Each structure stands twice: as structure tokens, then as C-alpha cells.
Amino acid sequence: MGGATPIDAALKRLQAAVDHLEGAVEHRDEGERRHRDLETELQRIGGDRSKLAQVLDQSEARAARLEEANRDVSRRLVTAMESIRSVIERHGG
Asked: What does the DSSP 8-state code read for residue 4?
């Protein structure tokens, strides 16, 4: 028998279909792995964002405290300079 029988042809088509299905399953599995990797990365980025937001809030609060301290020091320096001028003027400066 030199020619392919209908069963041989059907088996070849079946094997091609199985090969195609396996390729599709592998492609889908790879897509799901990438999706999970992206979800993990997104969660990590979200955590980093939260930490950075917290650090930013702390830095802004510290900057506000430093600005207030700077204003207080400036007021005290002005008061001290005025006191020194007053003392110098009273003592014939």
C-alpha cells in the first residue's frame, strides 16, 4: 500500500490540531504568567508609592517646622538688635 489511507490523513489532521492546541495552551500560560508578573509589579509599585507618599508627608511637615523655627529665630534676632540699639542709644552710643 503506497497511498495514505483516510485514517492516516485523519490522524495527521488530528495531530496537527493537537499540536495547534498545545501551542495555544502554552501561549495562554505565558500570557497568564506575564499577567501575574505585572500584577506583582503593580503591587510592588503601589507599596513603593505609599512609602514615598509617607516620606513626602514627613518631609513637608519637617519643612513647615523648619520654616516656623526660622521665622521665630528671625523675630528674636530683630528683637535682640532693637534691644542692643536701645542700650547703645541710652549709653551715649
From this structure: P
C-alpha to C-alpha distance for 70 and 57, rounded to whole angstroms: 20
| CA-to-CA dists, residue 85 to 47, 72, 76, 79, angstroms | 57, 20, 14, 10
* Closest by Cα among 33, 15, 12 to 23: 15
**Cell matching residue 75:** 523675630
Mapping DSSP to helix (H, G, I), strand (E, B) and coil, where does residue 92 land? coil
Residue 91 DSSP one-character state: T
* pLDDT the model gives residue 93: 64
**Residue that is written with C-alpha cell 485514517 in the block:** 7
**What is the pTM for the complete model shown?**
0.58
